[in-house]
Amino acid sequence: MADIKELLVRSGLRRTGPRMTLLTILQQSATHLSVPELYRRAADIQPTINTSTVYRNVAAMTESGILHSIDYAGEVLFGLDATPHNHLICEQCGLLVEVPANELDPITVHLGGQLDFDPDPAGQVLRGRCRECAQQPAETSGAEAVSLSMIKSRWISISSTRPSRS
Ligand SMILES: [Zn+2]
Ligand SMILES: [Zn+2]
């Protein structure tokens, strides 16, 4: 388990009550939480805390790299950057799995070498289907297990088209 005091020291942020509370909640939950959920849990521990304090501190800690955010089912969730990791999200059942950052090394090496693209080593989100959902009779055509080669080919097909960004 990462030492959250140590994380704060490294980030250069002051160690304050709300920050320690929020980091402790994230560490103990061992998952990613939304700001409203963080607020709900923080208020149980520290009843005087308010939503704007939670927002402000989550933003500051995200900016300084202690936390990272991911889009999950229409919500923004925040996770602790204790160990570098990427995320696999099952689009069918919502399972969220953290995988060690080096699991994607073959892909990042490929993208760097062949496509001159240097992806962030951590914080990536790969969407697909978990093993359990993949084994269910396919309701939609094309239900299949997410293998490394599939992820790779999806990434490459994504990278070859440039989506219009608003
Ligand atoms: Zn994460
Ligand atoms: Zn699933």
Characterization of the model:
- The structure is a single chain.
- With 166 residues, the chain is α+β, with helices and mostly antiparallel strands.
- It folds into two domains: 4-80, Arc Repressor Mutant, subunit A (Orthogonal Bundle), CATH 1.10.10.10; 85-160, Dna Ligase, domain 1 (2-Layer Sandwich), CATH 3.30.1490.190.
- It contains seven helices and five strands, in the order ααααββββαβαα.
- The strands form two sheets. A three-stranded mixed sheet has the order 4-3-5, with no helix packed on it. It has a two-stranded antiparallel sheet with strand order 1-2.
- A hairpin with a 5-residue loop joins β3 (85-90) and β4 (96-100).
- The longest helix has 13 residues, at 17-29.
- It starts with a helix and ends in a 6-residue tail after the last helix.
- Residues 141-146 and 148-163 have low confidence and may be disordered.
- The structure holds zinc ion (2 copies).
- One zinc ion (ZN) binds at residues 32, 68, 70, 79, 85, 87, 98.
Please specify the SSE layout and strand pairing.
Elements: H1 4-11, H2 17-29, H3 35-45, H4 51-63, E1 67-72, E2 75-80, E3 85-90, E4 96-100, H5 105-115, E5 125-128, H6 131-135, H7 148-160
Parallel strand pairs: 3-5
Antiparallel strand pairs: 1-2, 3-4
Helix pairs in contact: 2-3, 3-4
The structure holds zinc ion (2 copies).
